[in-house]
Specification:
By secondary structure, this protein is an alpha/beta fold. The chain has twelve helices and 17 strands.
């Protein structure tokens, strides 16, 4: 087993601010991005108490009251009694503070009544909590340790408790790409979830062999999975783009930022509106398209003063850059960590381009210019 490598407790991902006071997961999903960090099939490690976590969040240069918080992305907080207790205490601590950032919780595990009650209690107190249920139709041979019947049961339980549910349909692999598997998942999830987020398969530079073990075509040296935003089997991609009529009323997003904007009643801040992804990939409700159409063109212009001040805040004073005011695009003059680029982009609602750091361990993301890669099935 690899030596365990812990991520920062407060970290910036491409869609949200990650809050990871507990890291390591007892489950063994074979595609998990924690695998090469030695953080799967292991006892979760508590790196910060709920109070310490709150203090670290508020002290982080990345923190901003408009950002969405994703809790426990380096574990499944519903997996063990220790992680469940930590989750409930952290939700209570967030609710008792002045923080009112939207909070997302991602799980594949059963959600007990005590946690449902805790989420409801804190939502009633004004903390916007959204639950992402990660359900994609993969079996126990790939999602090892997951009780899929219990996972399915989460959907109606949360729906009946009036807790917003996002169906997180990922990863897309050949094993779950047939229409019968997809529709078994979607027929159930679309009954209870507010929307579906379908993000394909992400491959970080250190995980190509890991994913190729599940998807042998990715071992092809002519493919560059790390340069793509996401990978899709052709069958899944085509199904999404010819969505059966019975799902017409169910929003399906390929950009998580758009799903969150829809649920939170916000306009797009991620540069997606009116792009091919917006127009051709996302199945976005009319109310959300109208919201973006009205609000995005009216957004306050970003200035060099805004950028200079924020670059200094996150530790990059005097960093050279150019700004295209018309497109709200910032081009940085030298490589910076991906987390810094994502934070700048989210807080100022700009598109950030930068030379790629060769030491970067994570995928660049669609919002950094990468595009999906669609893989045709092997020829007979």
């Amino acid at each position: 087993m690899p030596t365990r490598v812990f991520e920062p407790v407060i970290d910036q991902h491409d869609t949200w601010l990650a809050v990871n006071p507990v890291q390591g997961c007892p489950k063994g999903c074979t595609y998990c991005y924690l695998q090469d960090l030695g953080l799967t099939r292991t006892k979760p490690t508590v790196l910060a108490t709920p109070t310490d976590t709150l203090n670290q969040l508020l002290a982080s240069p990345y923190y901003h009251p408009d950002l969405v918080l994703a809790l426990y992305t380096c574990t499944d907080a519903l997996a063990t009694p220790t992680t469940r207790a930590h989750l409930m205490a952290l939700l209570d601590a967030l609710s008792a503070s002045d923080i009112r950032n939207p909070v997302c919780l991602i799980t594949k595990c059963p959600i007990p009544d005590t946690v449902v009650a805790c989420i409801s209690r804190n939502r009633d107190a004004g903390l916007p909590v959204i639950v992402y249920l990660s359900y994609s139709g993969l079996g126990p041979d790939i999602e090892r340790g997951i009780d899929h019947q219990a996972l399915r049961a989460n959907f109606p339980r949360l729906h009946h408790a009036r807790i917003p549910v996002v169906h997180y349909w990922r990863p897309a692999l050949p094993q779950n790409s047939s229409p019968d598997v997809i529709e078994h998942v979607m027929d159930w999830a679309s009954r209870y979830a507010a929307c579906t987020v379908a993000v394909g398969t992400k491959v970080k530079p250190t995980a190509r062999d890991q994913i190729a073990a599940l998807w042998p075509q990715l071992a092809d040296p002519h493919l560059d999975p790390q340069a793509a935003d996401s990978l899709w089997p052709r069958a899944t991609w085509d199904w999404l783009h010819h969505l059966p009529d019975r799902y017409a009323g169910h929003p399906v997003f390929q950009t998580n930022s758009c799903a969150l904007a829809y649920l939170l009643g916000r306009a797009d801040r991620a540069g997606v509106w009116n792009t091919p992804t917006c127009l051709d990939a996302n199945r976005c409700p009319t109310v959300q398209r109208d919201r973006c159409r009205r609000a995005v063109p009216e957004r306050r212009a970003v200035t060099e003063i805004d950028i200079d001040q924020y670059l200094t805040k996150i530790g990059h004073p005097n960093l050279p850059y150019t700004l295209n005011r018309d497109t709200r695009t910032v081009v940085l003059g030298r490589p910076v960590p991906l987390r810094d680029r994502h934070n700048l982009a989210q807080v100022l609602a700009v598109t950030v381009r930068s030379p790629q750091d060769p030491a970067e361990r994570y995928w660049p993301g669609r919002l950094s210019g990468a595009q999906p890669l669609i893989i045709d099935p092997p020829r007979p």
